[in-house]
TrEMBL record:
Its main location: mitochondrion. Pfam families: Hexokinase_1, Hexokinase_2. Pathway: Carbohydrate metabolism; hexose metabolism; Carbohydrate degradation; glycolysis; D-glyceraldehyde 3-phosphate and glycerone phosphate from D-glucose: step 1/4. This is Phosphotransferase. PANTHER family: HEXOKINASE, HEXOKINASE TYPE 1-RELATED. Residues 11-210 form the Hexokinase N-terminal domain. It comes from Punica granatum (Pomegranate). The gene is LOC116199615. It is a single-pass membrane protein.
Length: 463
């Protein structure tokens, strides 16, 4: 019928506009490399902030003692306690707790958010073993993973540039987040100092390096997306300080804010961006990360309902609610292998209150999931190629048989299997056989929390 043809035209148009042929991916990678150079050359030189992390030494494996970490960067935060055994002994014991952040605190005041966090941390500290209290005259030591753009001023201080991923707490912007946390720790009477301020990419890089010395970069695919890597200190023209002894510096790219005329953008992306909390910003993040994939799908389905009566004569009311369709639900539908596509049917029923969908309709939904996820996964691979190009590790002649390991983490990478496997196969496709064998994608499970604890250890004032 005419309606079905109209619906299929919308699908076809989406597929065309989301297309990521290899040539386009190469252009994205090249543009990423160019922006990396520009962001390293001068402050504000690029959409890529290329933030100097002040981490010039990554963990070696010799770290020793009891350390805490706090990981804040999305809808949950985690508190960790890690007992490091020292040389050759690794992590002796590791405990953590996950706490969800009530939505009203994500858009409230700085004090309210940090008080909530400090209280949760205090509760966790109270479960410490008898014998593990710090020596007299010493405070407990913490690594703080804070995964929002921060202008780092030292290893343990940095001012918040802006919020992302649905957070919007005006009075915290421009403040030193370590000072904010430290004040809250005082208010709740917790005796603890912050040794290191990092974000999840740097934590993941540090955690990855602790276990594997070939780790050179880390990428997060979770609620948001970002990457960090190890740069030669002499390749950072904007760095004014003394050259670090190691000759290296970890750079926090803030690649979520990347944009380029080569990115395949659709009308849905444009509307999503315009209606977001941060219009015009985080464009790459808005087409590849977990916060947005399900929402893009919802927008396509809404147009199909409105213009092609895809779900019948009336437009399902729930379909009009922004962010009602979450990426984990999209992923569950996309991975549905049952002959009747039962999961798709059930998700449509439970979330959107659309009943009795035909198999034909369900198949179209799978197709839409595939278009949206494939675009995100292939662009993620192009971003990684951009980093490898910057480091000249993208060709066969470079570094002999030296392996380059990229530590990956985040709920999207971990749970959305079709996304991660597409990303990995696209990277192989981009690199070509021989080079592809030297590049390894490694899942660094929870590296970001452990990494912060490791960096707290290597930056301890008591060393
Ligand atoms: P954060 O990025 O907030 O620190 P995570 O790394 O745990 O936290 O990532 C959580 C995000 O991962 C969720 O917001 C969601 O978008 C995505 N995610 C979680 N589970 C799944 C899943 N089963 N399928 C697809 N995406 C998922
Ligand atoms: Mg995280």
């Amino acid at each position: 019928s005419g309606r079905w043809a109209k619906a299929m035209a919308i699908v076809k148009e989406l597929e065309d506009k989301c297309g990521t042929p290899i040539t386009r991916l190469r252009s994205v990678a090249d543009s990423m490399t160019v922006e990396m150079h520009a962001g390293l050359a001068s402050e504000g030189g690029s959409k890529l902030k290329m933030i100097i992390s002040f981490v010039d030494n990554l963990p070696t494996g010799d770290e020793q003692g009891l350390f805490y970490a706090l990981d804040l960067g999305g809808t949950n935060f985690r508190v960790l306690r890690v007992h490091l055994g020292g040389k050759g002994k690794g992590v002796v014991k590791q405990e953590f707790e996950e706490v969800s952040i009530p939505p009203h605190l994500m858009t409230g005041t700085s004090d309210a958010l940090f008080d909530y966090i400090a209280e949760a941390l205090a509760k966790f500290v109270a479960t410490e073993d008898e014998g593990s209290h710090p020596f007299p005259g010493r405070e407990r030591e913490l690594g703080f993973t804070f995964s929002f753009p921060v202008r780092q001023t030292s290893i343990a201080s940095g001012t918040l540039i802006k919020w992302t991923k649905g957070f919007s707490i005006e009075d915290a912007v421009g403040e030193d987040v370590v000072a904010e946390l430290t004040k809250a720790l005082k208010r709740v009477g917790l005796d603890m100092r912050v040794n290191a301020l990092v974000n999840d990419t740097i934590g993941t890089l540090a955690g990855g390096r602790y276990y594997n010395p070939d780790v050179i970069a880390a990428v997060i695919l979770g609620t948001g997306t970002n990457a960090a890597y190890v740069e030669r200190a002499t390749a950072i023209p904007k760095w004014q300080g003394p050259l670090p002894k190691s000759g290296e510096m970890v750079i926090n790219m803030e690649w979520g804010n990347f944009r380029s005329s080569h990115l395949p953008l659709t009308e849905y992306d444009q509307a999503l961006d315009a209606e977001s909390l941060n219009p015009g910003e985080q464009i790459l993040e808005k087409i590849i990360s977990g916060m947005y994939l399900g929402e893009i799908l919802r927008r396509v389905l809404l147009r199909m309902a409105e213009e092609a009566a895809f779900f019948g004569d009336t437009v399902p009311a729930k379909l009009k609610i922004p962010f009602i369709l979450r990426t984990p639900d999209m992923s569950a539908m996309h991975h549905d292998t049952s002959p009747e596509l039962k999961v798709v049917g059930k998700k449509l029923q439970d979330i959107l209150e659309i009943s009795n969908t035909s198999l034909k309709v369900r198949k179209v939904i799978i197709k839409l999931c595939d278009i949206v996820a494939t675009r995100g996964a292939r662009l993620s691979a192009a971003g990684i190629l951009g980093i490898l190009k910057k480091l000249e590790r993208d060709n066969i002649s470079s570094n002999g048989s030296q392996k380059s390991v990229i530590a990956l983490d985040g709920g999207l990478f971990e749970h959305y299997t079709k996304f991660s496997s597409c990303m990995e196969s696209t990277l192989k496709e981009l690199l070509g056989g021989e080079v592809a064998d030297k590049i390894v994608i490694e899942h660094s499970n929870d590296g970001s929390g452990i990494g912060a604890a490791l960096l707290a250890a290597s930056h301890s004032p008591y060393l």
